[in-house]
Specification:
The complex is a heterodimer of chains A (about 325) and B (about 450). In chain A, about 75% of the residues lie in helices and about 5% in strands. Chain A is mainly α and about 325 residues long. Among the domains of chain A are: about 130 residues, no CATH class; about 70 residues, Fusion Protein Consisting Of Minor Coat Protein, Glycine Rich Linker, Tola, And A His Tag, Chain: A, Domain 2. Chain B has about 450 residues and is mainly β. The N and C termini of chain B lie far apart (about 50 Å). The chains are: A mainly alpha (about 325), B mainly beta (about 450).
Chain lengths: ~325, ~450
């Protein structure tokens, strides 16, 4: 109630003033003029200008806009008031003229009033009866209205309550829904995030795998290239070794051939006899020494000596075709 | 037909007998002609052996050695006038000079006259290429009349050093010489050194002499003589002091062969009808019959271990070689090459079996007993009576050169050969005798 007053001070003030004027008017009428029944004639009295008593302002906190607004309004009202005063002054003058006129009329009317009063009394009684009946009727209607209003109020309250509950339920549901949705969103977001993280992780793994694969391939390629290079080097080396081996073989063959050419013995040598000849030679093929090793059983002393003689007779031995195949000490198996 | 194998030996000799015990009788030398040598005979230099401080020796030991080596076919001695130096000590050898001569070995030495008139012989064998003294030896107290034999002995040792096989120079040959004297023929059983020197006649006869065989100790010879008008087996000592007829049975008495230990004498006798093998115990002259077959079993040859006899038999129709195991009396055929194989002779080392093999005439075939391989080693028309040298390296056989009988020596591998002949007659029935001085154990 106070809040309402606070919110609408002028309206309240205006209402109070209005009620007070009415009350005063009624009381004055009642007391001085117990019966006033001239609704059309009551005008001038009733519209007697009255300045609305200033109500003490209730302290309240307002904002500047409101203050400005109010100040504006106050200034407007002041302007209106001044205009009103001027108007009222004019009106007052008009009214004094009219009062004089009225007083003459009143005297006339007082005589007509007495007459009317008697008639009015009769009418009053009839109206009173009528009014009692109307009042009863009104009371009944009002009771009915009250009951109906109460029921309506109750219904409205219930309805309000229901609506409120519904609203609450709706709100609760909505909230729940919102929460659910938020939760869902959150979950979705979380899921999405997880998915993204997972995807990212997968991508990262993929990337790592690809990197690893790339590295592996690079490494494999490097290894392959290295292997190729190594293989090539190996083949070159093998070819060189083969070449040297071939050269060495032909070298040794030429040596054994020359030794064989110089082989001669008066002894009958078993064709199974064999010895390993160990020849020490100079670079020019001249034999430094020769000895037999690892001879088998059929290799007689005569065979060994003849083999050594064949080597010595073959000196100088064929020279190495390339320096690599030269060996100061040469070994080969010799058979007759 | 049945007597094909021995027809030659039983030819119709019916003339009377003139026998001479002529051990001191000196005959003309058996001339040796080398007909074939090794393709790659090894150059060798033999420096003449002089008597230290005196010059030439009564026997040229160096020359005998040189000839022996040449005769073996394996060596080509350098002519003496081409020798660059004549060292007697190893230290004096200038190897380059000998190498330039393409000589593998140098044999040098000298004789040292001893106060008693005998000689010491120094011998050195030098390997020119290896520049090593392979052999250095002193043979002591050799009488002047034994210098030749000493030279043969030295040759054997050198040969062994050079070839791994003992030489067979210090040996003798027995053979039969046939001479025409007017209308009559004379036969002599002769013995000479292996080089044909020192021939001596141990028997002279008007009747044929056949199949001389040496006793293992070289002191006796058994042979077949027809001095009695038919074949008898005679045992005769080389010193001429004894002569004994040990088989004069009815029929054939032939092919006496000493067992390796000299205690038995195998022979062919037909006293019971057919020619079979018998063995006589030399200690008591007891006979034991080895074969009993209507065919001819003859020409026995002992295996070196004395456990078996190889012999010739026509029990399969044609003469072939069979082997009789003396422990079991099991007879197995050995020769399968050709239709005619006779006169088996086992080499002293037991490795080879020589035989007369008919193939475009009669030739010498040699079977390797270790693997059965057979090889014909001669290309003549009439070869007979093969006999191995004691070193098993060579063999001597009789052959016929334009109607003239002579001896031939061939190496077992057939690569070297030489011919031995006499000027005034024919030679046949050779038998290579044992070492006069047994070689030292290898």
């Amino acid at each position: 109630m106070i809040g309402f007053i606070k919110r609408h001070p002028y309206a309240v003030g205006l209402a109070i003033t209005f009620h007070a004027v009415i009350a005063v008017f009624l009381i004055g009428n009642f007391w001085s003029k117990p019966i006033v029944i001239a609704v059309e004639d009551a005008g001038p009295a009733l519209i007697e200008p009255k300045v609305a008593p200033q109500m003490p302002l209730t302290t309240m906190t307002v904002d500047q806009a409101l203050i400005d607004q109010q100040l504006e309004r106050i200034r407007e009202q002041e302007t209106q008031r001044q205009a009103e005063q001027a108007r009222q002054l004019a009106e007052a003058q008009e009214r004094e003229q009219r009062i004089a006129q009225l007083q003459r009329q009143q005297e006339e009317e007082s005589r007509r009033a007495d007459q009317a009063r008697r008639e009015a009394e009769q009418e009053r009684q009839r109206i009173a009866a009528e009014r009692q009946r109307a009042e009863a009727e009104q009371r009944r209607a009002e009771e009915a209205r009250r009951v109906a209003a109460q029921a309506e109020q109750q219904r409205a309250r219930a309805e309000q309550e229901r609506a409120r509950a519904e609203q609450q339920a709706r709100e609760t549901a909505q909230q729940a829904e919102r929460q659910r949705q938020a939760e869902e969103r959150r979950l979705a977001e979380l899921t999405e995030l997880q998915k993204q993280a997972e995807a990212e992780r997968v991508r990262e793994e993929q990337r790592q795998l690809e990197l690893a694969e790339q590295a592996r391939q690079q490494e494999a390629e490097r290894a392959r290239q290295a292997a190729i290079a190594e293989e090539e080097a190996r083949q070159r080396e093998a070819a060189r070794q083969r070449e040297i081996r071939n050269l060495r073989q032909s070298y040794v063959s030429s040596i054994t051939a020359k030794v064989r050419e110089n082989w001669r013995t008066p002894a009958d040598i078993s064709s199974d006899a064999q010895c390993e000849l160990v020849i020490v030679q100079e670079r020019d093929g001249s034999v430094v020494s020769v000895r037999t090793e690892r001879c088998n059983a059929p290799a007689t002393e005569q065979f060994k000596q003849a083999a050594e003689r064949a080597v010595l007779r073959a000196s100088p031995l064929p020279q190495a075709p390339v320096p690599e195949v030269y060996e100061r000490t040469i070994r080969f198996v010799f058979k007759p | 037909m049945r007597y094909n194998a021995v027809r030659y030996k039983f030819a119709s000799w019916t003339a009377g007998l003139v026998m001479l015990m002529a051990s001191q009788f000196v005959q003309a030398n058996l001339v040796i002609e080398i007909t074939e040598g090794f393709e790659n005979a090894i150059p060798v230099a033999v420096v003449p052996f002089n008597v230290e401080g005196r010059g030439a020796a009564p026997q040229d030991v160096g020359e005998i050695i040189q000839n022996n080596l040449r005769r073996s076919g394996r060596f080509a001695p350098v002519a003496t006038n081409r020798l660059p130096q004549r060292p007697t000590a190893f230290e004096a050898v200038v190897f380059e000079q000998w190498q330039r001569l393409d000589v593998d070995h140098l044999i040098m030495g000298q004789l040292i006259l001893r106060p008693d008139g005998s000689y010491d012989i120094d011998v050195r064998l030098v390997d020119v290429l290896r520049r090593q003294q392979v052999l250095a030896k002193r043979y002591q107290q050799v009488p002047a009349n034994r210098l030749r034999q000493a030279a043969h002995q030295i040759s054997d040792e050198l040969y062994h050093e050079l070839t791994g096989v003992w030489g067979a120079f210090n040996t003798r040959l027995a053979y039969v010489t046939v001479r025409e004297e007017g209308n009559e023929r004379s036969y002599s059983l002769d013995v000479s050194d292996s080089d044909g020197h020192n021939p001596r006649t141990v028997l002279r006869s008007r009747m044929p002499i056949m199949s001389p065989r040496w006793s293992p100790d070289g002191r006796q010879i058994a042979y077949v003589s027809f001095e009695a008008g038919r074949s008898i087996i005679v045992l005769q000592s080389l010193d001429g002091r004894s002569r004994e007829v040990i088989a004069e049975f009815t029929g054939i008495n032939s092919t006496p062969v000493w067992s390796p230990d000299g205690r038995q004498l195998a022979m062919t006798l037909s006293k019971d009808g057919s020619a079979n093998l018998y063995v006589m115990n030399m200690a008591n002259r007891q006979l034991r019959q080895l074969t009993n077959h209507p065919a001819i079993d003859t020409e026995p040859s002992w295996s070196p271990d004395g456990a078996a006899l190889y012999f010739n038999s026509d029990r399969r129709g044609q003469p072939q070689i069979f082997k009789l195991d003396l422990a079991t009396n099991v007879i197995t055929r050995v020769s399968f090459e050709g239709r005619y194989n006779a006169s088996p002779m086992v080499s002293p080392n037991g490795r080879h079996l020589a035989m007369v093999h008919a193939n475009n005439g009669f030739n010498i075939g040699i079977m390797d007993l270790t693997n059965g391989d057979f090889r014909q080693v001669t290309r003549t028309s009439l070869a007979e009576s093969p006999s191995f040298a004691p070193n098993s390296d060579m063999l001597v056989y009789a052959t016929n050169n334009r109607g003239r009988g002579e001896l031939a020596v061939i190496s077992v591998d057939g690569r070297a050969s030489q011919v031995l002949r006499v000027q005034d007659g024919q030679v046949r029935e050779p038998a290579w005798g044992p070492y006069l001085t047994p070689p030292r154990m290898q």
